[in-house]
C-alpha cells in the first residue's frame, strides 16, 4: 500500500504546529465525515474480498490499475469539488468506493490463504487489533492540546521513501532480516502516519481544504497497511505455534 500513501509534510501550515486550541464544531463535523467515509470503504473492501473469492476472480493487474486510476481521479477532481462546494458527487463517490472495493479484490487471495492454511482466527484478530490501535492513536492525535504530531511529517515521508527502496531491493536479494525490518518498521511507520494524518486533516481543514474524501482515503491507506502487517505478524506467530504443536505430537 506504500504506493498509495500521498501524505506530505509540505502540506502542513506552520501556524498549525503551534495551535493549542481544541477542536471547533466545524472541525468535528469534518472529522466525523472522514470516519464515516472510512467506515464505508472498509465495508466495501470486505465486499471486494467476498466478491473476488466467490463470484468474480480477475487478474491482479486489473484491480491494481483501476485502483490507481481511482486515487488519481479523486485527487484531480478535488479542485473542481472545492470550486463547486460539492465534495460528494456520483463520480467521486464511485472513485472513492471503487478504491476500497478494488483493494478488497487485491488482498482477497492473501487473506483466504491465511484463513485456510494458517488459522481462521488470524484475520479477525488482526482486524479488531487494527480497529483498536487506529482508534486509540487517532483519538490521541485529536485530543492533543498541541498539533505537535505534525512534526512527524518529514520524518515519516523520508522513512517511507527508504522503505519503498528497501522493498524493491528485497525482491531481488530477499533476506529474513530485511523482511522483518520492513514488516515491523512498516507497522510502526504507518502507526505514525495515523497520528500525523489525523492532525494533518484538521490543519488542512483550517486552510480551507474541505475534501473529506481525500482525507478519508489517507486514513484508509493507513488502516489497511496496519491491518495487513498485523495479519503477517500474527500469521508468523500462529505458524510457529502450529509447528510447535506438530513437533510435540511427533515426540
From TrEMBL:
The keyword Transmembrane helix applies. One of its GO terms (cellular component) is membrane. It is found in: Membrane. It is a multi-pass membrane protein. The keyword Transmembrane helix applies. The chain crosses the membrane at residues 34-53, 59-77, 93-111, 123-143, 150-169, 181-200. This is BAX inhibitor related protein.
Amino acid at each position: 500500500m506504500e504506493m498509495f500513501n500521498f501524505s506530505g509534510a509540505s502540506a502542513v501550515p506552520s501556524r498549525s504546529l503551534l495551535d493549542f486550541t481544541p477542536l471547533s464544531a466545524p472541525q468535528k463535523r469534518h472529522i466525523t465525515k472522514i470516519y464515516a467515509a472510512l467506515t464505508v470503504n472498509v465495508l466495501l473492501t470486505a465486499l471486494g474480498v467476498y466478491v473476488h473469492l466467490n463470484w468474480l476472480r480477475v487478474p491482479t493487474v486489473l484491480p491494481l490499475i483501476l485502483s490507481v486510476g481511482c486515487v488519481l481521479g479523486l485527487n484531480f477532481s478535488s479542485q473542481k469539488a472545492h470550486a463547486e462546494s460539492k465534495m460528494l458527487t456520483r463520480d467521486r463517490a464511485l472513485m472513492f468506493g471503487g478504491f476500497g472495493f478494488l483493494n478488497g479484490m487485491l488482498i482477497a487471495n492473501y487473506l483466504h490463504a491465511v484463513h485456510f492454511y494458517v488459522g481462521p482466527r488470524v484475520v479477525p484478530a488482526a482486524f479488531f487489533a487494527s480497529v483498536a490501535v487506529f482508534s486509540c492513536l487517532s483519538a490521541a492525535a485529536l485530543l492533543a492540546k498541541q498539533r505537535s504530531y505534525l512534526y512527524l511529517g518529514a520524518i515519516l515521508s523520508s522513512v517511507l521513501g527508504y522503505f519503498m527502496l528497501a522493498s524493491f531491493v528485497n525482491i531481488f536479494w530477499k533476506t529474513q532480516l530485511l523482511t522483518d525490518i520492513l514488516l515491523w518498521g512498516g507497522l510502526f511507520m504507518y502507526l505514525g502516519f495515523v497520528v500525523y494524518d489525523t492532525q494533518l486533516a484538521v490543519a488542512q481543514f483550517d486552510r480551507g481544504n474541505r475534501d473529506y474524501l481525500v482525507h478519508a482515503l489517507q486514513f484508509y491507506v493507513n488502516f489497511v497497511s496496519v491491518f495487513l502487517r498485523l495479519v503477517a505478524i500474527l500469521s508468523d506467530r500462529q505458524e510457529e505455534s502450529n509447528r510447535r504443536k506438530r513437533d510435540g505430537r511427533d515426540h
